[in-house]
Amino acid sequence: MPQVTGNATPLVKMENIVMKFGRVVALDNVDFDVRPQEIMALMGDNGAGKSTLIKILTGIYAPTSGQIRFEGEVVQISNPRRARALGIETVYQDLALVNLMSIGRNFFLGREPICQVGPLPCLNMSCIDRDTRRSLADIGIAVRSANDKVGTLSGGERQSIAIGRAVHFGMKLLILDEPTSALSVAESRKVLEYTLNAKERGMSVIFITHNIHHVTQVADRYTVIRHGKNVGTYDRDQVSADDISDLITGERES
To answer: 164-185 in b/e burial notation, b at 16+ Cβ within 10 A?
Structure first.
């Protein structure tokens, strides 16, 4: 089964990434790239190395060796703040949302707009409410009120808030970690729609999942990781869902 090579300059290119934890080799000379405005599926079984690769890209781990290029330039991503400054936003399975806070406060968490009331700086709640509702509506997400507590939302609604936040702040790369796990069929469909919407608005997306049938609905390419190695990268029309499953389990070689 041939691997795919493309001529487009990648938004992200990870080259010869090695990650060792003592004697354990978690990643073994892995190459991985994402092109501008594409949805790249990152797939593999539990323990394959997907999470480790993403933690290197987002500055949580420093690789043992290898390099990362972002928009063609070699970069050092030493911490998550540096990743965010480059335009990389990650939506983890736990979503990093605060249940007791409102949708609007979660939307602007860590980037709150401030206004002056006399000598004192205060949160600009009218701006938070207006911009939250407007930004979510722009990508097809309707909320009853930006003042509603996040803890009252369904799993799919919570995913939508996290995705909408990344789009609003102009991120270039959105990383979705198992975004449809534990969601109903209807909610999963909405999350897939929001993912496609993010691409249409110019973002690239890394979609990490075990659900092959979900990812085949949105991904442009697939990269399969197995036992810390890149098994292969394929265009969507090159492989079927069964092919991907076989590559993940090792029943078929690249």
So the answer is: bbbbbeebbbbbbbbbbeebee
Instruction: Identify the pLDDT of residue 133.
Output: 87
What are the strands, taking DSSP E only, across the chain?
Answer: 12-21, 24-34, 39-43, 65-70, 73-75, 88-91, 114-117, 120-123, 173-177, 204-208, 221-226, 229-235
pLDDT at 6: 53
pTM score: 0.85
The CA distance from 215 to 122, in Å, is 43
Contact 199, 205 (CB under 8 A): yes
CB 40 within 8 A of CB 198: no
Question: Are the beta carbons of 62 and 79 closer than 8 angstroms?
Answer: no
What pLDDT is stored for residue 117 in this prediction?
78
Percentage of residues in the chain having pLDDT higher than 70: 94
* Sign of the torsion angle spanned by Cα atoms 10, 243, 174, 214: positive
CB neighbour class for 205 (10 Å; exposed up to 12, middle 13-18, buried from 19): buried
Q: How far apart are CA 3 and CA 13, in angstroms?
A: 16
